[in-house]
C-alpha cells in the first residue's frame, strides 16, 4: 500500500504524521511509541456528526472511551461536545477528571458490584442497567431520576466472536421477555425518565445487522411503551462502526448507514407513536482507530529454514489485537516508504510466546536491523488493552498537531513494574 491516508504522509520516503517526522519522534521518545493525531480525531467526529445531522437533528454521540482513554484524547473529544460511554467506575472517574459533566456520561456495565453502583449513583452519571439483578440492587442504593435498560435484541455482529455482544449466547443485556418487568420495577420505584439501549458488537462494516437489530429493539421499546406506560427520552443504538484495516477492506459507507438507519428509526418512531426521543450512538473505534499509529523499531532479523522473522520491540503487551483476535494491522516501513523490493516476513514481538506476532507472511520492503515500522490504525483498543506482561513497561504516547508534538503519556520505567508491591514480606 503506497497511498497513505491523512494524517499520514510520505515525504521523500520518510513517514510524517500530521507534519511531524516519525524519525524525529523516536529519536526524542524512543520506541514503542503511540502517535496520535488530534486533527484526525476531530475530523472523524465532524464527519460522523455531519452524516447524522442530515437525517435527524436530535442525536448525541457518546464516545466509547474503552477504545482509547488517554486524557488528551478525552479532552479533544470533550471540546468537540461529545458525550462519553463508560463501562467502569475508573472510566467514569477519568471522564469526570477530563471535564465531562455527569449528565454527559452514560454508564453501561456488566457484572457491576454494589459499591460500584453506589459510586455511580454518587457521581450522578446516567446508568444503563444490564440485568434485573443490577436494577434491583441499584434501586436499593438510590432511585435515579433517569435510567436506561440495555436490551439484547438477539441479533449480534462483529469482526470476531469475542466482539459480538448480542444474540443467544451473549452475557449482555435484558431479554425481550424481561424488559417490561424491568421498566415497571423502575417506574414503580420512582424513576421518571427513561432510555433504552443496545450494543450488538464491534467492527461492523455494513448497515444490515444494525437495521435488523434496530427493528427488534424498537419492537421492544413499543412493547415497553404500551405495557409499562413508559415514554423514552433517548434510544441508544450502541457503537460498533467499523473501520478498514486491510488494503482490501471497504470503509463503512457512512452516508448510506445514516440514511438507512435513521430513516428506519424515524419511520418506526411514528409508526409506534414513540414521539421524538434523542438518538444516541456510541462509537469508539470509528473516532480514534485511524488517528494513531504505533512506531516500533526492528532489532533482529532472523532467517530460519522456514520463516523470515523481523524482531521488533512492540509485542502483544503493546498491541494485543493481532494475537487476541487474529486482527490485521497494516504495517509500513516508516524510513523506506519508496522502497519497492519486497519480501515476506513474520513480524514478531519480544514476548516469550509463539503467538506474539504483529503480522504473519507480510510483504514488506527488504528490512534491515534499525528500520522503523509503523503499525497503522492502532488508535482503538491499542494502548488501552496493553499490559506489562513479561515485565515490560508500557509504551509512551505522543499527540501531534500540524507539525507540533507533545508527550501525553510518559513511557513507564522499571520502577513502575513494582508499583504497589511489597519488596520484603515479613510474617509475624
Ligand atoms: N458501546 C458499548 C456498550 C460497548 O461495549 C462498546 C465496545 C462500544 C460501545 C464501542 O464499540 P466500537 O464502536 O469501538 O466498536 N477490543 C475489541 C473491541 C471490543 C469492543 C467492546 N465494546 C477490538 O480490539 O476490536
Secondary structure category: alpha/beta
- Output the number of helix runs: 11
Low-confidence parts: none
Instruction: Give the DSSP E fraction (strand runs of 2 or more residues).
Output: 15-25%
Portion in helices: 25-40%
Provide a concise account of the structure shown.
This protein is an alpha/beta fold.
Describe the structure in your own words.
The chain is an alpha/beta fold and 428 residues long. It has 2 domains: 8-37 and 289-418, Beta Barrel (Lyase, Ornithine Decarboxylase, Chain A, domain 1); 109-283, Alanine racemase (TIM Barrel), CATH 3.20.20.10. The chain is 29% helix and 24% strand. Strands 4, 13, 14, 15, 16, 17, 18, 19 and 20 form a 9-stranded mixed beta sheet that branches. The longest helix has 20 residues, at 208-227. The relative contact order is 0.16. The model has no long low-confidence stretch (mean pLDDT 97). The structure holds ligand LLP.
List keywords for this structure.
24% strand, Lyase, Ornithine Decarboxylase, Chain A, domain 1, 428 residues, binds ligand LLP, alpha/beta, single chain, eight-stranded parallel barrel, TIM Barrel
Q: What topology emerges from the helices and strands here?
A:
Blueprint: E1 8-11, E2 14-17, E3 20-21, H1 22-29, E4 33-37, H2 38-53, E5 59-64, H3 71-80, E6 83-86, H4 89-97, E7 105-108, H5 114-123, E8 126-129, H6 132-141, E9 146-150, H7 176-189, E10 193-197, H8 208-227, E11 232-236, H9 254-271, E12 278-281, H10 285-288, E13 292-303, E14 308-312, H11 321-325, E15 331-333, E16 342-348, E17 357-365, E18 372-375, E19 396-401, E20 404-409
Parallel strand pairs: 4-19, 5-6, 5-12, 6-7, 7-8, 8-9, 9-10, 10-11, 11-12, 14-16
Antiparallel strand pairs: 1-2, 2-3, 4-13, 13-14, 13-18, 15-18, 16-17, 19-20
Helix pairs in contact: 2-3, 5-6, 6-7, 7-8, 8-9
